[in-house]
Amino acid sequence: MTTNATHAGLLHTTWGTLSSHYRRHPGQLAMLLLGLWVASALWSGVQAINASARDSYARAESLFSAQLDSVVRRDNQPLSLDAYLTLRRAGMPVSPLVEGEMTIDDGTHLRVIGIDPLTLPGESSLARQQSDAAALRDWILPPHRARIAPEQVEAARDDSRLPPLETDPSLPPGTLITDIGVAQQLLGVDTLSRLVVAPGQSLDLPPSLVRQSAAALASPGQLTDSFHLNLTAMGLLALIVGLFIVHAALGLALEQRLGMLRTLRALGVPGRTLVIALALELLAIGLLGAVLGIVSGVGLARLLLPDVAASLDALYDTDVASHLALPWYYWLGGLAVTLGGLFSAGLGMLWRAARLDILALGKAQAWRARLHRQLRLQALAGAVLLAVAAWLGWRLGNRPNPQELALGFAMVAALLLGASLWLPPLLAGGLGQLSRQLRSRPRLQWALADLQLQLPRLQLPMMALLLALSANLGVGSMVGGFRLTFLDWLDQRLLADMYVRPTEAQHADVIAWLENRDEVRVILEARHAEAPRLDAEGQATGQPLALFGITPAAVMQRNWPLLETATGRMAAWQALSAGNGIFINEQLAHRDGLAPGDTLYLRGPQGPVTLAIVAVYPDYGNPSGEAVLSASYLAERFTASPGSLGVVLRPDATRDVADLQAALGERFGLSGDAAVDQRAVKRTATEVFERTFAITQALNVLTLAVAGLALLTTLLAQAGARRAQLAPLWALGVSRQQLIGLQFGQLVSAATGTALLAIPLGLGLAWALVAVINVAAFGWRLPLHIFPDQIAMTLLLAMLVAALAALLPTWRLWRVPPRQLLQEFSAA
Amino acid sequence: MLQLTNLTKTYPTPQGPLHVLDGVDLRLAAGESLALMGESGSGKSTLLHLAAGLDTPDRGDVVFEGQSVSALSEPRRAALRRQRLGLVFQQFHLVPSLSVADNLTLQARLAGRADTRWTQHLLARLGLAGLNDRYPEQLSGGQQQRLAIGRALAAKPRLLLADEPTGNLDEAAADQVLELLRELIEESGCALLMVTHSARVAAPLDRCVHLQRGRLAEAGP
Amino acid sequence: MKRSTLLLLLASVIIAGLGKAFWPTAPSTHAGYAGLGEQASGFAQAGPGHTLAFPEDHGPHPDYRIEWWYLTANLESADGRPFGVQWTLFRQALAPETGDNHATGDAPWQDRQLWMAHAAVSTPEGHRFAEKFARGMALPAGQGQAGVTAAPFSAWIDDWSLTAESVGSGFDRLAVRAEADDFAYRLALIAQGPLVRHGEGGFSQKSADGQGSMYYSQPFYRVEGTLRLDGEPIAVTGRAWLDREWSSQLLGATQRGWDWFSLHLAGGAKLMAFRLRGGGEGDEGAYLSGSWITPQGEVTALDEESLRLTPVETRDVAGRELPTTWRVEVPARGLAVTVSAIHADQWMGTSFPYWEGMVTVQGSHTGEGYLEMTGY
């Protein structure tokens, strides 16, 4: 007697009845959508940035520079054609490369790379395509061809200087590749920028040339992964906070519709039909929310991406497209994550609907017993999670290595989740304790008891607030600490007032000239070389190590920061000056487990060199291992060519940096990059740094805003029920002003309690970030700084968020006419 | 049409098992109206729930129109409720987010047999004409219960199960609702099993039985 | 002339993108032959009227599309094991030197000549090879990554070279060297006889339509030198054969590949023979040609009437069926021999792959030599 048609009709009627709730209470639907929207918007925004930037790195890495070693002149001057031909005629498989910047007609900057496809080694994206004979012909013969990244192809098409263009999506943004002859013409040079060679090939280079291994040039992928991991973690946090809203909204919608669900069951709707209808409802809401979220996520990413791209460009020397290029799986992924989140939040609702007890129709809810049971469970689960976090923290706190980055994040997740699970039991316990103390103050006691009553509904937004506050505090501490340390370190490292980079030929003359100037206090000479590491048996191991030569002048010894030394600062500097000691950076120490007192074996041009590690120095912002020697020793044993000269001026000098710059320009023709004011260097570094963390801060603020929204929506959703609870009090003679004050006070105190828990949690998070995540991701450890003003700010923020969220419902209560309160009283 | 045989239902309580129904036998003929009376906690509502297939007996059988209700699966019992039974509760249990018209036709629509003429007739008979677009909260108690009765009858059930339908109403409203209920029952030829504790409410029905400590004692009309 | 022609074709295929027509199994190349055909009109054409002049013709002929310097050597170590050496330099003009709107200018990279070189060593058990590319550069003679000068003769690409001892010695005394990852060699070559002009005074016809190339050889080298395999030096002696060939006109589109022989026969005679396959069903349309060279260097041209080349046995090499044993007959000279590869594994897995390896001669005459097979 039941047919498919009547089944469809049954489902249709059931769904219509269920959704009539949202038609009557569009606010709840809006809140649900809002939660989904912000959650998925923040998440997909971050993912969009990641996807786009990753694409750029992948393209940069597939380009030769990440795969091929380079040969350059020691003095960094361009190479002549003869130098190249001499190497080729000696049988060395080097290939010439011309690189430079050009500005095309519309002002776009292009990185022009000229290659010789006939000698270019390997399978790099440069060498590709030319295996085709016809393509090779086109490439070599006029009018030639150029391959260009898709981002710039439109702009470049109109430039008549460029050869016919072919779009190559595998090229990094802003890159144009063409034949070497064409590139020379475009760039107006007749020299070569560098030579490239396959990494495995051995070369026997003349002393004027030096080989730079591909691996020694930082691979942006590896490096920026940690940056993106941080972004992803922020996005995930936002998603979770958003899902708290969703969870709260769904819980509310179910609570309010429990009667309706039971009635429907009594009227003959099978449980299965009910669950299907509810799931369909979730799906519809989820799709709508996800689409909204993803679209605005992309908008958010567009907003943030230029900053991200600029930071990554500057920090890591990676070209990141500053406009979005999103692969299909990005859209699908965003949808899946949003729907997955929604269903995880809705699962509880579906479960309860499926197990609905029809006979409980109209029965009062034993909320207190249920709440207590739930709080016990939460406290237990939270304890387990916190124990896991503590164990992981203990394991990782000492010497984490990069593979443990994921564990580090697991620890942070366990810490955050465990603490948020503990929040409601702690609040309930605190309230119970307080209300017992306040027996003599009936109104306050009522307020506390009433707050306890609200706890089941308030707990989710409060947990969201807790997460947002601790993230704010934790990340804030880290950034603040980083800023302090970093600026300090910059001051120490950039000791000189100006930096001069003379050519090799000028080097000695410039030193002599500077030494004769009265305003110059000391000249700090720097050099750079690379040497293969050896093991104790003299066998080469791994990649060459970058070596830096510094001048151990007194001013340097006083200021250069050292983290650890073998036998004290003095001894360390003495060993360095004498040439038998070497300083290594923190990254090398972490990566290879080296410490002061260990020995480093290197292969120099004149044979093996054995050096004692006498100190470890901090080297923020540098991804790779490095070591420092005295410049004169480096020149002697590793034939390091002259590098830059740091010039420290006398404090009482009458002439300043600008005067010296002018004089150098006049005497030696050194200007621009060849004579740099230190303040400018520092300014640039600081800017880069600030920009990077501005993004983190922006996401932080957004997360906090989302938590505020969660609170607001919850309050709005229960405003009606609240009024019914407040009405009897009003009837008993509590004025409306007092009621409003009570409500305000309740929320602010709940938020304050939350913030109090957020403080230790935030500090724990800050510790996890600087001592675990940072070390694992970047290889350096930051000192943990605590900023009391930031803590105070967190407390204030919490109260502000609570007050803001309470504002709207309170204002509505204020506006309710007494007649309606009266009605609600009688209804209650 | 409805035959209850040896119905037994026991609930576990902290004080030990509570025998709510202890071997109840009851027959109801088509079109017959029966009042089920008893003290609070005498098991009236449990009996009604068992008859409606909302709950299953520990022992005994509910046979409705020759079909054993207890033996049916949950979806089949749900189908039985929406197709052949009408339920009226003391608390009305209207859907607050549906309008009067939508509430009235809800079960009929669930059963897939909404009948506009019958619905219009019911609206008029129940004195709800013109209130179509209101919501339950905007109706008086009597109006709400009339609407609940209308919702049950709109699906043209074979049997109406009513649980203290006037329990929440004042005397005047109760009388009005009962009068209307009897008239509509007669009109539609539907049987009625009404749980009540009030002899006044039970009086106009064809038959009346008493439930005492889980057992049945029949009283004359 | 044998392999040269093949390689001529090969090189054209590789560099100019003619692969598809000649080379059905070659890596696909794009269409666009039409444009190439038009440009071909700007090149000089080989023909029977040309007279060869030395040492000028030892040098490059940039007006012709393709050209090579092709050396093969049959060698023996002190303990009697057979070794083979190949050294080849190809030149290819991508476009005629005149008639283009875009001036090539003086910039060294703006040159239309491409150079490609193959070097190989066949050992008694195996085969090693390497490949190099370079582009011509508008630089004074003798400079650049690759090139050839006529007097003193020198041909080179990177550190591979084939060089005369002195200005006046032409091809008489040459030194050849090449080095790759897994082999190297340095050999001294001393000519024991005169240069040999193939075909009509050096014009060698390649098909019935009359197209062909300029082709001469020095087949009379005595060789002495050292191979280095896996760092181990091996002293060797033996015989070598140098081919010089240039042309602009390529073969018909239906020709599939070539089989080319250069044989040193006991008694001092030499045989050059080739067969261009295709142009009809099976091998029916094959074009046969060759030269019988007396120990004194006198040449008799051979054609399909006087020369027979018959595959006898095939082997599976690099996934292809290759005839590694042949029946070679020149009835007028009483020659009826079986020519077989010393071993099948002498495959050149270069950009455009082919088989090039040492062979032995048994039958009416004994001897040794080189065989080249392409288009399988």
Structural account:
The complex is a heterotrimer of chains A (828), B (221) and C (376). By secondary structure, chain A is α+β, with helices and mostly antiparallel strands. Chain A has four domains: 1-64 and 223-363, no CATH class; 68-212, no CATH class; 367-481 and 685-828, no CATH class; 502-669, no CATH class. Helices cover 62% and strands 13% of the residues of chain A. In chain A, the strands form two sheets. An eight-stranded mixed sheet of chain A has the order 5-4-6-3-2-7-1-8. Chain A has a six-stranded mixed beta barrel with strand order 10-11-16-13-15-14, surrounded by four helices. In chain A, helix 5 (153-157) links the parallel strand 4 (146-148) and strand 5 (165-167). In chain A, helix 11 runs antiparallel to helix 12 (442-493) and helix 11 (405-437) runs antiparallel to helix 21 (736-778). Chain A is elongated, with a radius of gyration of 33 Å. Chain A starts with a helix and ends with a helix. Chain B is α/β, with parallel strands linked by helices and 221 residues long. Chain B is built from seven helices and ten strands. In chain B, strand 9 and strand 10 form a beta hairpin. In chain B, helix 5 runs parallel beside helix 6 (171-188). Chain B starts with a strand and ends with a strand. The model of chain B has no long low-confidence stretch (mean pLDDT 87). Chain C is mainly beta and 376 residues long. Chain C has a single domain (2-373), classed as Beta Barrel (AttH-like fold). Chain C is 7% helix and 51% strand. Chain C has helices at residues 2-16, 19-22, 33-40, and strands spanning 66-77, 82-93, 113-122, 127-135, 146-149, 154-157, 160-164, 173-179, 183-191, 196-197, 203-205, 212-229, 232-247, 255-265, 270-278, 287-293, 299-303, 308-317, 320-330, 335-341, 347-348, 354-363, 367-373. In chain C, the strands form two sheets. In chain C, strands 1, 2, 3, 4, 5, 6, 7, 8, 9, 10, 11, 12 and 13 form a 13-stranded antiparallel sheet that branches. In chain C, strands 14, 15, 16, 17, 18, 19, 20, 21, 22 and 23 form a ten-stranded antiparallel sheet that branches. In chain C, 53% of the residues are buried. Classes of the chains: A alpha+beta (828), B alpha/beta (221), C mainly beta (376). Chains in contact: A-B, A-C. The A-B interface holds A 1-2, 5-6, 9-10, 13-14, 17, 20-21, 23-25, 259-260, 262-273, 358-359, 361-362 and B 49, 52, 54-55, 74-75, 78-83, 85, 87, 89, 91, 93-98, 102, 106-107, 109-112, 135, 151.
